[in-house]
Amino acid sequence: MLARDLAQSFPTVTLETDALDAARLLAEHRLPGLIVLDESGQPYTVLPGSQVLRFVVPTYVQDDPALARAYDEKSADQLCAKLVSRRVRDVLPKRGDVLDLPIVPPDATAIEVAARMAGMRSPIIAVVDGTTLLGAITVSGLLAHLLDTGTTR
Amino acid sequence: MIAAFVAAYVLIATERIHRVAAALTGAAAMVLLGVVDAHTAFFSEETGVDWNVIFLLLGMMIIVSVIKQTGVFEYIAIWSAKRARGRPFAVMVTLIVITAVASALLDNVTTVLLIAPVTLLVCDRLGVRPIPFLIAEAMASNIGGTATLIGDPPNIIIASKSGLTFNDFLFNLAPIIIVLLGVFVLMCRVMFRSAFVYDAQRAADVMELDEREVITDKRLLTQCGVVLTLVMIGFIGHSIFHLEPSIVALLGAGALVAVSRTQPNEFLEDVEWPTLVFFMGLFVMVGALVEVGVMSDIGNWLTDSVGDRYLLAGTGLIWGSAALSGIVDNIPYVATMAPIVNDLVHAGGGSDQANALWWALALGSDLGGNATAVGASANVVIIGIAARNGHKISFWHFTKYGLIVTFVTITIAWAYFWLRYFAFA
Question: Closest Cα partner for B366 from B330, B335, B417?
């Protein structure tokens, strides 16, 4: 099966989308990440859910995870307040490079998609035909396909 | 040969290439020029790698890598901030004292690496700017590390070259460091006065932190406490036990690894191998100068020039070392100066006043690290941590405080040197 067959329509956000709305979209649809479009509507990059967490959890706690245990429940629950008045652009890693966009062409095979996903450690990958976004493949969707074909032989 | 040494030294000082690569290139040049061979590099006490320094550092790095897994630093820092009732200046004082004491017992970089994240947490909770706290900690680390033989790498080099003991360092340096720490706290009160904004609600947020939760392994904490105590007893009593500090540190590291059953990948992960290799290359470079007699020529010239004017020599050493340590890494500086000071001390027949030159070298080179943002590794590490957490500390921001602190501490250190070893000798 090729990438165009595996691709499904996928919610997108722009660089200017409110970060809190993007986080809600991730949570409500239980998505592993979101495809981010640039000002011209072209796919720009992927915003993985883990990047949202990386943004809300202070760097010093990521450096010293033992400190996370010192937080009381109330403070832990207020972590997402950091997303208020922020845009998706602010949440993305500092060196957001369009060349790092995890995309595959429509005729990529499943192994090509898997290799690209693994290499870029991205939970989703955009299927792009020229400049047109056809959809996206999630890691769970790809695994379901691979398991299905691999175990029925 | 001297040109090769100077070239490597310039590369280390300017950091055009990584200092480890520069030191190894310098050492290789000495070998290719025929000045150094395997015997002089590896087995000679005068011209070779100082294995006492290497293994003392290695042992302490292993001990620290196990201790840091316990969460004890985070515990002490949060506990202290709560005892300070969340009052910003009181919190800063407790963090300064913790950093200074820890730096006297462990290496400076590890200390600031452990204390900086918890400082950011406390400042976040207090709603105060963390930059003054972080700068104060870097400086407290450099001041505290001066107090003991194991506190700062230059002291380890001085101890190995001079034969001075852990207790010699404690009796001669710790008293003035306690005074300097007190003065430094007062200076912080003035320098960072705008940072101490008290907010009762924010202080209550600090009181909500639960320090007990950060202790990850109570059994390991007990084991570390016992072993670290034994290691300190070993350092203090090493002339009684006839054990070199390097052997004490290695025995401590071995004992801690054995009782804690820590895996090699865990206790070797935090060993700073580049630093150890840097030291080795540096020792070979300096050893080559000793081998061809350059160091003894400089030593003889200085001995003739100084005569018995040790106060003048010590004054020059303190101020000159402070100025140079603010600009270049104090480790290669002290490694180069140690053979020269050794000659001066021996020329003085090992008298108390001649011996005091070692303390002048230690005080100048250790405290001088505070002068600029790149004067000490702890400064560079703190600035890096601050930047990653969104708090930019520019070179001049750090240096404007550093120059003031260095001038005041060096002036007081010089007065101590003069009073203790000359005026009241």
Answer: B330
Residues 6+ apart with CB under 8 A from A40: none
User: Rounded to whole angstroms, how far apart are CA atoms B254 and B136?
Assistant: 34
Q: What is the pLDDT along chain B (425 residues), one digit of tens a residue?
A: 788 888 887 888 777 888 889 999 999 999 999 888 999 889 988 888 989 889 988 998 899 889 888 888 889 889 988 899 989 999 999 999 999 999 999 888 888 988 999 999 999 888 899 999 999 999 999 999 999 999 988 999 999 889 899 999 999 999 999 999 999 999 999 999 998 988 888 888 888 888 888 888 889 999 999 999 999 999 888 778 888 889 999 999 999 999 988 888 888 887 888 888 988 998 899 888 888 888 878 878 888 888 888 999 999 999 999 998 887 778 888 888 998 999 889 888 878 899 999 999 999 999 999 999 888 888 988 998 899 888 999 989 999 999 999 999 999 999 999 999 999 87
Q: Among all chains, which residue has been given the structure tokens 């294995």?
A: B51
User: What ipTM does the predicted assembly reach?
Assistant: 0.73
> Which residues from chain A sit within 8 angstroms of residue B67, using beta carbons?
none
Q: Is A97 helix (H, G, I), strand (E, B) or coil?
A: coil
Question: How far away is chain B from the Cα of A79, in angstroms, using its nearest Cα?
Answer: 13
Query: Which residues have C-beta within 8 Å of that of residue B321, sequence separation ≥ 6?
Result: B330, B333, B334, B337, B360, B361, B363, B364, B365, B368
A71 touches chain B (CB under 8 A): yes
Residue B85: DSSP 8-state:
T
In Å, how far is B390's CA from the nearest CA of chain A?
Answer: 9
Using CA atoms, how far residue B11 sits from B23, B24, B51, in Å, is 9, 11, 24
Cα B178 to Cα B133, B170, B184: the distances in Å are 19, 11, 10
Residue type, B258: A
Identify the sign of the CA torsion B7, B8, B13, B19.
positive
Token pair, residue B116, equals 């900086």
How many Cα atoms within 13 Å fall on the side-chain side of residue B162? 30
Which residues on chain A are in Cβ contact (under 8 Å) with B385? 60, 63
Q: Is the dihedral of CA B414, B416, B419, B422 positive or negative?
A: negative
Report yes or no: B209 and B179 within 8 Å, Cβ to Cβ: no
Amino acid letter, residue A143? L
Token reading at B66? 């196990």
